[in-house]
Amino acid sequence: MSDFVEFTGPAGSRGRGRYLSWPGLGLAVPGLALAALAPAALPGPGWLSLLAFAVGLGLAYAGLVRLGRGVFGGSFDLMFWLCLAWLVVLVSAAVLAPMLPLGEYHDIAKTIDAPAMAPPALFSEHPLGTNNFGLDLLARVLYGARASLLVSIGAVAIGMAVGGAIGILAGYFRRLTDTAVGVATNSLLAVPPLILLIALGTVLEPNLRNIAIALSLLALPSMIRMARAATLTFAQREFVLAATAMGASRWRVMGRELLPNVLLPLASYGMVIVSVLIVAEASLSFLGLGIQAPDPSWGNMIAEGEGNAFQDHPHIVLVPGVTLFLTVFAFNLIGEKARKRWDPRQAKL
Amino acid sequence: MARGVLRRLAEIAVVLVVVSVGTFALVDLTPGDPAIAVLGEGHPPEEYAALRDEMGLGDPFLVRYGRWLGAALHGDLGTSLIPPNSDVAERIAAALPVSAEVAVLGLVMALVVSIPLAMWSAYHADGRVDRVVSAGTFGVLSVPSFLAGLLIIMVFSNQLGWFPRAEWVRLGEGLGGNLYHAFLPALTIALAETAMFTRILRGDLITTLQEDFILAAKAKGMSPVRVLFSDALRPSSFSLITLLGISLGRLIGSTVIVEYLFALPGMGTLIIGSADKGDFPMVQGAVLVVALIYVLANALIDLSYGYLDPRIRRAHV
Amino acid sequence: MSQRPHAPARPPGGSAPLLVVEDLRTEIRTPRGNLKAVDGVSLTLDAGETLGLVGESGSGKSVLGRTVMGLYTTGPAMTVSGRVLIDGADVHALGDAGRRELWGAGVGMVFQDPMTALNPVKKVGVHLTESLRRHGGLSRAAARARAEELLRLVGIPEPARRLGQYPHELSGGMRQRVVIAMALANEPKLLIADEPTTALDVTVQKQILDLLGRLQDELGMAITLISHNLQVVAGRADRVAVMYAGRIVELAGADVLFAAPRHPYTEALLASVPRLGRPPHSRLEAIDGAPPDMVAPTEGCRFAPRCRYAREDCHRVPPVLAPEAAGGRARAFACHHPVRPVVAGGS
Question: How far is C216 from chain B (nearest CA, A)?
Answer without folding.
Answer: 19
